[in-house]
Design goal:
Layout: E1 7-12, H1 18-30, E2 34-39, H2 49-56, H3 67-72, H4 75-81, E3 84-90, H5 92-99, H6 106-113, E4 117-122, H7 126-130, H8 132-143, E5 147-148, E6 152-155, E7 161-165, H9 169-177, E8 192-197, E9 201-205, E10 208-211, H10 217-228, E11 232-237, E12 249-252, H11 256-264, E13 272-275, E14 282-284, E15 303-305, H12 309-314, E16 321-328, H13 332-342, E17 347-352, E18 364-371, E19 374-382, H14 383-400
Parallel strand pairs: 1-2, 1-3, 3-4, 4-5, 8-11, 8-13, 11-12, 13-16, 16-17
Antiparallel strand pairs: 6-7, 9-10, 14-15, 17-18, 18-19
Helix pairs in contact: 1-2, 1-9, 4-6, 5-8, 10-14
The structure holds ligand PMT.
């Protein structure tokens, strides 16, 4: 799901389905999107602005001529702010006014002034939806790039049965989230991404090693998402049983020392460095040439500190945009922000490990992403979706710099 880097103006027009738009705001925010609500005069007959204010956390705009609202964020500023204008419900009247490029209220004015994606979730009586005039207006908006979600078929508030119901909030969220990463204003086209993934294994002797838990799934998903976003990706991978994502250049390593050398040999060409690997902090002082024979009840192994690859990349005078990961079992924000500052990173993606269903080895994960003065939550989901959200965030932060 790629919503963490998206800013939605949700336009609510007059229709009984307006009550569903309250839940839609919640669902969009749960996925990390920012949402500001604009209501038409007709919409206020169905739902009060207070409900939308409560769920969006921001004042609701209802009129073009509201001096105090204009002083806070003027309508042109709001139009520029939005990456997406989502009209749900979109009534027949609103669709007609959009098709005619009218600017007779705040919502239609925003639609003209915004360069963002326009989404329409129509809701009206089935006879109205089937009307050739409505269909012509919809075809005209589609031809200009508007994207339709629904309408769904079923029993309507008026008692009729047919196409015209507004799609359910979750269906709308899935539709707006399901766009290609490259479509997101902040793409990674032309960027060179160098990254690490998987564990490192530090050999004790020819049959034993010390290492960290990591399947490589999270890092490989980030590599695939960065590639999908248009980047050239070089992935330095510890020992994992995963296929290389399409279009990604993979370099296999085993130990932290090898991972370090592989990164340092390529870092000068990188625009972004992402460290998703679970690098072993220590390695045995020396690897034994032969298998150590079992003897005695205890074995004390002397370890020496490995190079900190991430910190070393971040300390370079000419450095890429540096993103670290943090695997934490408690006080996630405190520990992650500590690493962000100590290692002088641009961004850190922290995950809770040690819980069922996320972190190491599982197919799902959730991330708390932090940077100086800000942060975003990427909710629990498939690692591929979480990775796409993370890449969208990285691209957005890089574009802001
Ligand atoms: O591979 P999966 O099974 O999918 O699991 C994913 C993951 C949980 C391993 C991954 O999401 C993750 O959190 N990776 C980083 C784990 C980790 O080692 O965290 P850390 O807090 O110990 O290290 C902090 C950062 O420094 C990490 O970016 C790490 O790559 C980097 N580091 C650490 C030590 C070192 N010597 N060199 C480094 O570059």
């Amino acid at each position: 799901m790629v919503l963490a880097a998206r800013r939605f103006v949700l336009g609510v027009s007059g229709g009984i389905a307006a009550y569903k738009a309250v839940d839609l705001v919640r669902r969009l925010r749960e996925r990390g999107a920012e949402v500001r609500v604009v209501m038409t005069a007709a919409a206020e007959h169905f739902v009060s602005p207070t409900s939308f204010q409560a769920v969006s956390g921001h004042p609701v705009r209802t009129a073009l001529w509201d001096e105090s609202a204009e002083a806070a964020m003027g309508h042109i500023e709001l139009a520029r702010w939005a990456t997406d204008l989502l009209v749900a419900p979109a009534s027949a009247d609103l669709i007609a006014r959009l098709a005619q490029a009218q600017a007779d209220d705040l919502l239609t004015t925003l639609a003209l002034a915004s360069a963002g994606r326009l989404w329409l979730a129509p809701a009206m009586n089935q006879q109205m939806w089937a009307h050739p005039g409505v269909q012509a207006n919809v075809a005209c908006l589609r031809a200009r790039g508007a994207r339709l979600v629904g309408p769904a078929e079923g029993e309507q508030a008026c008692g009729d049965f047919g196409a015209g119901r507004m799609s359910e909030p979750m269906e709308i969220v899935e539709a707006v989230a399901g766009i290609d990463l490259r479509e997101i204003g902040a793409s990674m086209q032309g960027k060179r991404v160098l990254m690490t993934a998987g564990p490192t294994l530090e050999d004790i002797d020819p049959v034993r090693f010390v290492g960290n838990r990591s399947s490589g799934k999270m890092g490989f998903a980030v590599a695939a998402a960065a590639r999908e976003a248009g980047a050239e990706v070089v992935l330095i991978a510890g020992p994992v049983a995963l296929c290389t994502p399409d279009g990604v250049t993979r370099v296999d390593v085993r130990s932290a020392k090898q991972m370090h050398d592989a990164v340092m040999a390529r870092v000068d060409e990188a625009d972004v460095f992402i460290a998703a690997a679970a690098v072993a902090d220590y390695r045995p002082v020396a690897m034994l040439d032969n298998k150590r024979k079992k003897s005695g009840d205890t074995w004390t192994l002397e370890l020496v500190l490995n190079p900190d690859i991430l910190a070393e990349v971040a300390a370079r005078p000419k450095r890429p945009f540096v993103v670290g990961f943090a695997a934490e079992t408690e006080r996630v924000e405190e520990h992650a922000r500590g690493k962000l500052e100590r290692k002088r990173l641009d961004m850190i993606a922290a995950n809770r490990v040690g819980l069922e269903g996320c972190g190491f080895e599982s197919c799902d994960n959730a991330l708390s992403v932090y940077w100086a003065g800000g942060g975003e939550e990427i909710n629990l989901g498939a690692k591929s979706d979480v990775a796409r959200s993370l890449v969208a965030l990285i691209a957005a932060r890089m574009a802001e710099r």
